[in-house]
Design a protein that fits this description.
2 domains, TIM Barrel, nine-stranded mixed beta sheet, binds pyridoxal-5'-phosphate, Lyase, Ornithine Decarboxylase, Chain A, domain 1
Length: 429
């Protein structure tokens, strides 16, 4: 294939990458991730005093990703024993971890205490009881935050909105539940309450919900000070900063999102006579989404005249479940025909046995042949981390690219990997 027609990503001809590493293939640009981490440094950590940033590892986590983040001075938000384990194996500083989750198991809480995770974000009073019991039993102290559902409805898909009162995450601000648990924590020997956390939702294109949530939280912080004398040291405002989905949409600038939030916190504290707490952010998608693409080989073309044309690729909802799960939008190009004009409108479908396995609808592409390479953009977040083995499809390999380097950081699964851990009981042999 002629090089001049090919898509270049992260300094590499992606058609060469596809033939060298096979498809489907996740490709991640190390420079793009580092650029976003540096924007967090310049537009937040260095710009505002007493701030901290953690990356929400649910978006994408591997050992290599931990190393990149640690060298960029960004901490980690984790939500499971597996994520804690991965960070520990990568040699990540445990005090830079913030442990979230609405149903952490006793074993996961024990692991967090044993590893000395920096903050445990307690999601409910029940979880508080369990954590306090374990901390007493193992005689281990922990710094904690309380997760609050601020009663704010974020403008995003309902599956990724998390700040409303009926959310499964956090404690509602209504009633006196939070004051009660704050008072309990103030006398705990093992759990040290530092403050509060909220996360209103994901893929947010504006900061309206964050601003409303800050108002709610500052009222709460001033109420607990007046009623119980509790002085809040930390306010974690979560993540959720969006990324563009389709061509022509502008990237979300971190400062456009976060400056008004910081102004609101600073002026809101002044108005209420509060000390400004340490402010923590937790971006996931915004750091890694645009740093990733997925390469597929195009297979069969099916034209239903006057109705629809399907282009099938060798992956699908197994490596990117988001379109099937909540209608997420993606854009792609035929990577080896970059200078050819679009001549047809197609739906790109995967190979799974579900009619909903549609990666992109109405994509305009040039005339194609089986074996051409389709590159889908913006797949760095919530693709690899949400992938499955549905239909016993092995998961794609994952390579990290930068100038002159293309390293496999996750091996492509083999059929043998699919059988790992399976046994046939004696009576079935
Ligand atoms: C507690 C918490 N923090 C941060 C995030 C990161 O969200 P995003 O990837 O949209 O930035 C999430 C996402 O679900 C979350 O639950």
């Amino acid at each position: 294939m002629k090089r001049k027609n090919n898509l270049i990503f992260g300094g590499w001809d992606v058609v060469d990458l596809a033939s060298r590493f096979g498809t489907p293939l996740y490709v991640l640009s190390e420079d793009a991730i580092r650029d976003r981490c540096r924007e967090v440094q310049s537009c937040f950590l260095k710009k505002y005093e007493n701030t901290h940033a953690v990356y929400a590892s649910k978006a994408f986590l591997t050992l290599a990703m931990c190393r990149i983040l640690e060298t960029e001075g960004i901490g980690l938000d984790v939500v499971s024993g597996g994520e804690i384990y991965t960070a520990a194996k990568a040699g990540f500083s445990m005090e830079k971890l913030i442990f979230h989750g609405n149903n952490k198991s006793p074993d996961e809480l024990r692991l967090a205490l044993e590893k000395g995770v920096g903050r445990i974000v307690v999601d409910s009073e029940n979880e508080y009881d369990i954590l306090e019991g374990i901390a007493e039993e193992v005689e281990s102290e922990a710094d904690i935050l309380f997760r609050v559902a601020p009663g704010v409805d974020a403008h995003t898909h309902k599956y990724i909105a998390t700040g409303h009162t009926a959310s499964k995450f956090g404690m509602p601000v209504l009633g006196d539940g939070i004051t009660r648990i704050v008072e309990r924590a103030m006398t705990s020997r093992f759990l040290h309450l530092k403050g509060f956390h909220f996360h209103v939702g994901s893929q947010l294109k504006d900061n309206m919900s964050h601003l409303m949530a800050v108002n709610v939280l500052l009222d709460l912080i001033s109420n607990v000070r007046d009623r119980s004398g509790f002085l809040t040291e930390e306010l974690n405002v979560g993540g959720g900063f969006g990324v563009p989905e389709l061509p022509g949409e502008d990237p979300v600038k971190l400062s456009d999102f976060i400056d008004p939030v910081m102004e609101r916190i600073i002026s809101g504290c002044e108005d209420r006579g509060l000390r400004i707490p340490q402010t923590i952010i937790e971006p996931g998608r915004w750091i890694v989404s645009e740093a990733g693409i997925t390469l597929y080989s195009i297979g069969l073309l099916k034209e239903i005249p006057g109705v629809i044309t399907y282009v099938s690729v060798d992956g699908g909802m197994t490596d990117n479940p988001r379109p099937a799960l909540y209608g997420a939008l993606y854009h792609g190009v035929v990577a080896n025909r970059m200078d050819e004009k679009a001549s047809m409108k197609v739906s790109v479908v995967g190979k799974c046995c579900e009619s909903g396995d549609v990666l992109i609808r109405d994509l305009e592409i040039p005339s194609i042949k089986p074996g051409d390479i389709l590159a889908v953009f913006n797949t760095g977040a919530y693709n690899f981390s949400m992938a499955s083995n549905y239909n016993r499809n092995p998961r794609p390999g994952l390579i990290l690219v930068s100038e002159g380097k293309a390293d496999i950081i996750v091996e492509r699964q083999t059929y043998e990997d699919l059988l790992r851990g399976e046994t046939i009981p004696e009576h079935l042999k």
